[in-house]
Amino acid sequence: MTSTPKSERTRIAIRDAAIASFRQRGFDATTIRLLAGELGMSVGSAYYHFPSKSHLIQELYQQVQAEHRAVVAPLLASEAKLAPRLRAFLHTGLDQLEPFGDHASEFALAALAPGSDASPLSAHSEAARQSVITLLRETVEGSSDRLPADVAALAPEALYRIYLALTLAWVQDTSPGRARTRRLVDNGTRLLAVALPALKLPPVRRAILPLMADVAKLGE
């Protein structure tokens, strides 16, 4: 049995402590100095593995995406139609944010700051971003509702930006249980189910494709 090198064990310990702290304390109160103290290591050693808090937030993003995939996969396996598949993706995605609800605005502010490495659209977030886009592609391509090829090609990137906008709505939602955001998911996917047949009509595709292309490029 191959043992994990000490350096990697240290990195994992810092990552796990950071994710736990993000959940418990939020973004602002979680610092590398705090984590080093909790783990009984030097601040320099912690910085060696994670040069900034932005590097730690990427670990959180990837953990959340892994948990999202694990939860939604069986739902996608049992549902063929696109609208309910997308509804499952969105609801389970929001479910993964609930443990951070008390500190959601802190994460949003960090992500929205101009030039922030913590932005989901930053180069630093590439791995986590592609994980979500891949899951969205599987959500679309695994559906029995066959989208026109040009629409299907743009859908994952465009849906990812829509998903980000939905998470911002979730952050600002003060309704009990953030019910308004949940209704937005339900009503939006119902509308999608009704609108899907129209996507096969050339005039509709000519109207929607430029919009989808622009949405898919937002943040680049």
Walk me through what this model shows.
The chain is mainly alpha-helical and about 220 residues long. It folds into two domains: about 1-50, Arc Repressor Mutant, subunit A; about 55-215, Orthogonal Bundle (Tetracycline Repressor, domain 2). Helices cover about 70% and strands about 0% of the residues. The protein contains ten helices and no strands. The chain has helices spanning about 5-25, 30-40, 45-50, 55-75, 80-95, 105-110, 125-140, 150-170, 180-195, 200-215.
Give the helix/strand class.
Answer: mainly alpha
The number of helical runs is 10
Low-confidence stretches: none
How would you describe the oligomerization state of the chains in this entry? single chain
How many beta-strand elements?
0
Shape estimate: elongated
Look at the structure and give the CATH class of the largest domain. Mainly Alpha
Return the string of H and E elements: HHHHHHHHHH
Termini gap: 45 Å
Query: What's the CATH H-level superfamily name of the largest domain?
Result: Tetracycline Repressor, domain 2
Fold-level CATH name of the largest domain: Tetracycline Repressor, domain 2
